[in-house]
Design a protein that fits this description.
It contains seven helices and four strands. It has helices at 8-20, 34-43, 62-70, 90-97, 102-112, 124-131, 140-147; strands at 29-30, 50-54, 74-78, 116-117. Bound molecules: NADP nicotinamide-adenine-dinucleotide phosphate.
């Protein structure tokens, strides 16, 4: 379920039906916050396997990811490579220290936070670049520094996002 919009209880019941009929291997949600996941849990027979959320160094979602972990929900990030323009130049410098691009640094940062990413690019060279991240590890010190960056949502807020339907 892409967004926690109205009628989500009924939408989830339909997804559960699809799952029970073995027409989907797993079912999950996107952009749910903790409160919305708690509401879903109250009525759900199946819990979401994953929640795809805005997730990048400028919005590290610490609390929501901890909730996911406690409830066996996989964190999938979106926007992980997109929003680096508003972050300090030091991010680029750190990436250079590892001989990587800032996109690779942020993807690796997400993986080191046990989160899945579905990197998107229209360019073959970038797709190859984005897959070349398993040959380095970000140090604890750098992880802590990245995690301390100013936080703000860049995409819509799940609490008051009107999806237009
Ligand atoms: N659940 C949701 O609400 C939600 C919301 C948004 C996105 N998504 C999904 O999340 C996945 C990720 O998409 P995303 O939109 O969040 O963006 P993303 O993967 O974080 O970043 C994609 C953007 O970064 C550029 N890019 C990719 N690799 C690059 C590289 N190596 N160097 C420089 N630029 C690079 C791409 O441009 P080029 O294509 O020009 O390379 C594109 O503009 C997609 O599957 C998308 O459908 C889900």
């Amino acid at each position: 379920m892409h967004w926690p919009w109205n009628n989500r209880k009924i939408s989830w019941e339909v997804l559960e039906e699809i799952y029970r009929a073995k027409k989907a291997r797993v079912i999950g949600v996107g952009n749910f916050n903790i409160e919305q996941l708690e509401q879903l849990k109250q009525d759900a027979k199946e819990l979401p396997v994953a929640n795809q959320i805005e997730f990048h160094p400028g919005l590290n979602q610490t609390e929501l990811r901890a909730y996911h972990q406690k409830n066996n929900i996989v964190t999938i990030g979106w926007g992980t490579m997109k929003y680096h323009d508003s972050l300090p130049e030091t991010c680029e410098q750190i990436a250079r220290e590892y001989n990587k691009t800032i996109q690779q640094l942020f993807l690796q940062w997400a993986y080191q936070h046990q989160s899945l990413i579905i990197p998107k690019s229209m360019h073959k060279t970038r797709i190859i670049e984005n897959s070349a991240i398993d040959d380095f590890k970000i140090s604890d010190e750098h992880m802590k520094w990245i995690d301390s960056l100013p936080q703000s949502r860049k995409g819509p807020d799940p609490n008051n996002f009107y999806f237009g339907n």
